[in-house]
Amino acid sequence: MLYSPEEKRKIILDNYNNPSKQVELEELKEKSIDWQVSFVTFRGLDASCGDTIYLLIKKKDNFLIKLLFSGQRSCLITVAVTNIFFSCLEGKRLNFAQKTLDNCEAMIERKEYDLENCPELQVFNDIYKFPHRVECIKMIIRGIRKILNLNL
């Protein structure tokens, strides 16, 4: 699905201003204890990026049961892409997550991709025009892959 610039802006801002998967860090810590799952901290690799995001993913067998994050010290793109990813992946199988991450990477690398199962990620299809913002998405992809051991 292709979005107009206005639609892209609205989706990104909605996911930043009202992120359904974001909680305060203290709540994330409590959920981590309750679920007996550690949350993981990630920072941007770019020296000019000050983003810090905390990811918590509860999985059972091959399913992603619950995904939450805390990103109060992260930029608009980082928060929006994390919320879109987490909303899309919750309740799905690990192989769905792998395919979605692979396709999102292909999209930002300007390769052939298919994100029909997670169309809102396509709002970032022109992120390559803003090289300093590509790291925002790559940081989240690296984070999810690391937590789920999907570094294939």
What does this molecule look like?
The structure is a single chain. The protein has 152 residues and is of the alpha+beta class. The chain has a single domain (5-146), classed as Alpha-Beta Complex (Sufe protein. Chain: A). It has five helices and three strands; from the N terminus they run ααβββααα. Strands 1-2-3 form a three-stranded antiparallel sheet, sandwiched between helices. Helix 4 (94-108) runs antiparallel to helix 5 (131-148). The longest helix has 18 residues, at 131-148. The protein is globular, with a radius of gyration of 14 Å.
Question: What tags apply to this protein structure?
Answer:
three-stranded antiparallel beta sheet; alpha+beta; globular; 152 residues; 5 helices; Sufe protein. Chain: A; 47% helix
